[in-house]
Write a structure and sequence with these properties.
single chain, alpha/beta, UDP-n-acetylglucosamine1-carboxyvinyl-transferase, Chain, 2 domains, four-stranded mixed β-sheet, 23 strands, about 30% helix, about 25% strand, globular
């Protein structure tokens, strides 16, 4: 891992220095942590291959170990043996700034029949947790707060089946309850009941991923309507998992080709996927890049090749509700493009690692981009990289904001990021991988 709060000068490519690189992207953070949770909840040992090595995954493995799960590593694969009964940790579980840890693990810990405390990074206390903890209270678990840090008490056991929550701030509440629901005495029924009429659940592909993975483990999941999910009680069958590459993490490298010109190839790209990050292909195509999936094998995986044709073209309206993690990359592309971009459907990312909309508006504004917040996104007027200037940019301890600065700095000299270390959340050595990418354009 990179040392905390490491400042970084973003490397720049001059006109004509197009990239030419093949980037092997680490495993999907979303799939990795779901695979770990399901392995810990299963009825026997299993093996996870291709799992992401990052701070978020390390935090998840440590949290599950505190609950009694044994996770060993052999030749890069994780061998997971679930406990006969989940234990009560003697120390608080550290969630860091990981949404999957702070939301998935409490839904598991209620199965230990005791008191479990959770803590996190300083920024973690502002990440929304209330709807999940409300659901656990509806099932009989007590909690002493609605945000980190908190302690939950499951000593009274669980009862009931249906919970009603407002999931408009995160799909992870739904996924957390579905992942553990088969182990609850009566299973679970999760109903999204929005406080604001019409407020939808964001990032639905992440729920689709949860449901798909549960079914691979023999769990019965039904969806009687778009806002209700039902999980039948019963065993979660142990099954080995192969984790896909993280398509959202791949997006920053693919975007580099669109900005600088040249070609970036990402092997292992799935022809069909529940990852929201796959939407980057449509965005890049609309902005002028050529995207082709080549050499698809019998397992439905090939190499995605993106070739840039600068200058970038503002795509107009881009709805990222189902793939909101792409917002920082798309915002960087929009600031460097010629024309307007309006990103919609992402109001909920104000509650991510930081208020991403405010942070993007501030940091892109610092380099001279014309950016304004809207109720559910951003409006960006792009005038090309020549209209921007080098300046300090802040990451807000958010790996995706660091990716924004890297992309802007690729075309604008003088971008100085205050914290590149936060990229270890999803990519163990992002600076090294980025240097190799930029180096490919310099010959």
């Amino acid at each position: 891992m990179i040392a905390a709060m490491t400042s970084w000068s973003a490397p720049t490519l001059t006109a004509g220095e197009g990239v030419d690189a093949t980037v092997v992207v680490p495993g999907s953070k979303s799939e990795t942590n779901r695979a770990l949770v399901l392995a810990a909840l299963s009825d026997g040992p299993s093996v996870i291959t291709g799992g992401l090595s990052s701070r978020d995954a390390d935090l998840m493995r440590a949290a599950l170990a505190q609950l009694g799960t044994d996770i060993g590593e052999v030749d890069g694969a994780w061998h997971v043996t679930p406990p006969t009964r989940f234990t009560v940790p003697t120390e608080p579980i550290d969630c860091g700034l990981a949404g999957t840890v702070m939301r998935f693990v409490p839904a598991i810990a209620v199965l230990n029949g005791g008191r479990t405390s959770f803590v996190g990074d300083p920024h973690a206390s502002v990440r929304p947790m209330g709807p999940l903890l409300s659901a656990l209270r509806q099932l009989g678990a007590g909690t002493d707060a609605d945000a980190l840090p908190f302690t939950q008490d499951a000593s009274g056991g669980l009862s009931g089946r249906r919970v009603e929550i407002d999931s408009s701030t995160s799909s992870q509440y739904v996924s957390a309850l579905l992942l553990a629901g088969a182990r609850y005495p009566d299973g679970i029924e999760v109903a999204h009941v929005p406080t604001a009429p019409g407020a939808d659940v964001p990032s639905r592909p992440h729920i689709d991923m949860t449901v798909t993975m549960l079914r691979r483990h023999g769990v019965t999941v039904t969806t009687p309507d778009p806002n209700t999910w039902q999980v039948s009680p019963g065993p979660i069958v142990a099954a080995d998992e192969q984790v896909e590459p993280d398509l959202t993490s791949a997006s920053v490298f693919l975007a580099a080709a669109a900005i600088a010109g040249g070609t970036v190839r990402v092997p292992g790209w799935p022809e069909q996927t529940t990852q929201g990050g796959a939407a980057i292909v449509e965005v890049l195509t609309r902005m002028g890049a050529d995207c082709t999936l080549e050499g698809v094998d019998g397992g439905g995986h090939g190499t995605l090749r993106v070739t840039g044709n600068p200058p970038l073209v503002g795509p107009g309206e881009v709805n990222l509700q189902a793939s909101s993690e792409l917002t920082p990359v798309v915002a960087a592309l929009a600031a460097l493009a010629e024309g307007t971009t309006t990103i919609t459907g992402v109001a909920h990312i104000r509650g991510h690692e930081t208020d991403r909309l405010a942070a993007l508006a501030a940091e892109l504004g610092a380099v001279g981009a014309e950016v304004s917040e809207t109720p559910d996104g951003l409006h960006i007027v792009g005038r090309g990289p020549g209209a921007l200037r080098g300046a300090p940019m802040k990451a807000y301890a958010d790996h995706r904001l660091a990716h924004t600065a890297a992309l802007v700095g690729l075309a604008v000299p003088g971008v100085e990021l205050d914290d590149i270390a936060c990229t270890s959340k999803t990519i163990a050595d992002f600076p090294g991988m980025w240097d190799e990418l930029v180096g490919s354009g310099r010959g």
